[in-house]
Design a protein that fits this description.
It holds the Pfam family Peptidase_M1. InterPro entries: Peptidase_M1_aminopeptidases (IPR050344), Peptidase_M1_dom (IPR014782), Peptidase_M4/M1_CTD_sf (IPR027268). This is M1 family metallopeptidase. Keywords: Signal. Helices cover 28% and strands 25% of the residues. It is built from 21 helices and 31 strands. It has a 7-stranded mixed beta sheet with strand order 5-8-3-2-14-18-16. Strands 17-20-21-22-24-23 form a 6-stranded mixed beta sheet, sandwiched between helices. A hairpin with a 4-residue loop joins strand 2 and strand 3.
Length: 784
Amino acid sequence: MLKPFLPVAGLALLLVSPALAQTTNSGTDKFAQLETLLPTPNSYRTASGAPGADYWQQRADYNIRVKLDDEKQAITGSEDITYTNLSPDVLTYLWVQLDQNILDKNSITTATQVGQIQDRMPFQTLDYLQRSEFDGGFKIGEVKLKGGKALPYVINHTMMRVDLPTPLRPKQAVTFSITWSYNINDQLKINQRSGYEYFPEDKNYLYEIAQFYPRMAVYSDNQGWQHKQFLGNGEFALPFGDYRVSITAPADHVVGATGVLQNPNEVLTSAQRQRLEKAKNAKTPVLIVSQQEAEKAETSRAKGTKTWTYAAKDVRDFAWASSRKFIWDAMGIQQKGKPVMCMSYYPKEGNPLWGKYSTEVVAHTIKTYSKYTIDYEYPVAISVHGPVGGMEYPMLCFNGGRPEKDGTYSADRKYGMISVIIHEVGHNFFPMIINSDERQWSWMDEGLNTFTQYLTEQEWERNYPSRRGEPKNIVDYMRTGKNLQTPIMTNSESVLQFGPNAYAKPATGLNILRETILGRELFDYAFKEYARRWAYKHPTPADFFRTMEDASGTDLDWFWRGWFYTTDASDLAITSVKWYSVDSKNPEIENARKRELINQAPQTLSQQRNLQDIKRTLVDEKPELKDFYNNYDPLATTDADKQRYQQLVKGLSPEQQKRLNSGLNFYEVGLKNVGGLTMPVIVQMTYEDGKQEKMTIPAEIWRKNNAEVTKVFITEKPVVSFVLDPLQETADIDQSNNAWPQKAAPSRFELFEYQQRPQPNPMQQQTSMQQKEQKPAGSTGGTN
């Protein structure tokens, strides 16, 4: 067992209060309020973070007709947009998003792309660099006012300004139409949020289609028109509205989309409609289109077409998927008495993973997110498997995660697939319903969604291997330094290390808030209140920060400032520990303690050598030189000492006598904020008897000195060690300075051979072994 620290001194009780005073101030102000950074509250957005009495937002309703050309991989379409001005402003023009123009030959994204040529380059990278050879931008046909009058318009890369013939006044609406066409990108060559995958084995295409129509930009109280160009990272800012979309595709295709199918009798067989009805109350997913049926469809080509019509209310966007390869399953759940159809569309290449997990994951996600945010009110939630690795739209998302061709898969592939479905389905809440501006702040949807994804993963399976959320998982990123990081509060297109910055860091920060700073009860209430306040509205970062503080009753400005506005890292250190005990004034006790310290003190090198080299001293040779002090014991307790102690005790009150003999231990612990990020101080003390105690000291300990503080701990038992952040709650980037006595932080390095061959996944190895065991004796394999 480790021995406790040796006390450095007795502690005079009269000196305790002055000793606790912290007089040094570093001059920094990490606890300053955020008023100078956040917008001034007004009647639209209040200081509490709630929408104000005069809050407003615009509305855009769509009637869209679109046709898929399966021979040329192209889209043609037309739409009627009814735009309602609910602002107090008069509008003389409207801004429309043309996000498909990111694939235009003159794309601003391609022109501003930077990078370096590597010694080795995958073909996919070369395809991406040469994407300007692919003409995938919108070809705008006509822009007309309702009634047929042409409207003047100007295209500015991914934005189009439509000039109105007369100003659009408050409470007025205008209906206009647009026709367009574009070529669909091969998603495996030009990686975007939408595209097709070609299957050479059966010569079929699978389409995941989004950003396929000109969409209204947001006009809001806090920034006017949101017409920042779509450069790639910053996703979408869109108003709510009702959609009616008619999709014409080959007659043998299955089409899934945002919203509810309006014409099932025209596009589904009687058997498919019966299966859908059965699925509404099923406990497990029901196949609407089986793998056998999908494989049969792969072998033929219909000459005609079908038009699938979908309708959706109060959504901000619309997406769809189409293929004759689709297997389709569904299962109904109840959310607060309202039915929700959870569904999946996937090719046979996705099985067995997709048939086993996808729809179950969809249902689990809707239930869990509803618990932590608001009840899911849309009628469907769909997961589609195809070439897009992960992308979200209202009620429908595109997800990756495909097993090997033999049906086996690694654990990473399984959990990666489950996680991406949770994440993308979860986007129904952030930002599809709680409709933040992704073009400006990716973290407001990706970060909040990744945090809730973490909660949902942990409720899927005990000790689920979540990639993001746990503070320990972000330490490597936090170590990368300020030159490789940008603050979370950086525009989406300017962020460095997009995944860690927009996804992992805000999600981790929220987890620290929930577990360490606020506690689950306060955090969960505030987080749910934010979702409730801003459902079907357009929140800003200030609305989130203010609501979390307002609903939790906690000043968190120091946290937002450090975690969101800087690149400081969490690195707290113990710089010193001094142990004091109370001087009991009892000469017998104190003299014995002093004698023990003297006996325990090591001899110096000179003392040790003198003992060997000097056999006899002069006093040894001439005893007559000795006097009183040669036999005097200054630590011997005399009767006079005892009498003085008794007189002292008589003059003390019973409470003072008790404190004098309490035997308490006082530890003065020096703490330093090395990384600069303000965090609570979490201390674990291990006592002499092996027992441990952990305490969390609020971050306000740093309020008068942001850099260094001293904290006094009072214990009944001697302490043998102090450790900061023992459960890795704060993403501390250097654990080597977290302990006293100091101990080395464990680490490892790996030896490997170059050009190692990839190993089959464990499931593949097991399957191969079973096949060998089942092979008849003498068999050489092969088929007839």
